[in-house]
Structures are given as C-alpha cells and as structure tokens.
Amino acid sequence: MAKTEPLPTAEIGDFAVPRHVAIIMDGNGRWRRRADCRAGKVIARVEALRRTVRAAGDLGIDFLTIFSFSAENWSRPPAEIRD
C-alpha cells in the first residue's frame, strides 16, 4: 500500500484552514416558536447558508458538504417541502 501525503491546508495567521468542512443543518421546529413562521425560517436558513458558502470560499475551503434535508423531511407538508 502506497503512503499517502496529508492534504495541504491554507493558513490565515496562526489558523490552518481545512480543505473540507461538513455542515449538518439543524432543522428542528424550536428554531422559531411560531408554527406560521416556517417559511420565514427556511428563508433565514437559506440566507445563513449563502453567507456560510461565501465565507468558506473566502477562507480557501476547497470542499463544503452540506446535509440540509433529511429523509424525515419528506413527511412534512408539501408546501413546506416546496419552500
């Protein structure tokens, strides 16, 4: 078996930036208390995700894996899934 070299990292000051980051988005209903705010909750999460993706690129992260829709989400109301 050939020896593999570690993946290179970028550095910002004293901080080594990883090449790959994985994010698991929290989708529970506690994020906002009011049931009628689900669409607003989705919009807020999308905006937060956009900022995160841009920041990852600015930091030099090569790979970003995002787990944002679990199998359990398919049991939600169709309007919520569409949002």
Can you describe what's shown?
The mean pLDDT is 76. The protein is an alpha+beta fold and 83 residues long. Helices cover 33% and strands 19% of the residues. It has two helices and four strands. The protein is elongated. The strands form two sheets. The chain has a two-stranded antiparallel ribbon. The chain has helices at residues 38-59, 78-82; strands at 10-12, 15-17, 20-24, 63-67.
Offer a few descriptive terms:
33% helix; alpha+beta; 83 residues; two-stranded antiparallel ribbon; two-stranded parallel ribbon; single chain
Question: How would you sum up the global shape?
Answer: elongated
Largest pleated sheet? 2 strands, antiparallel
Helix content: 25-40%
Mean pLDDT: 76
Please specify the SSE layout and strand pairing.
Elements: E1 10-12, E2 15-17, E3 20-24, H1 38-59, E4 63-67, H2 78-82
Parallel strand pairs: 3-4
Antiparallel strand pairs: 1-2
Could you give a short description of this structure?
It contains 2 helices and 4 strands.
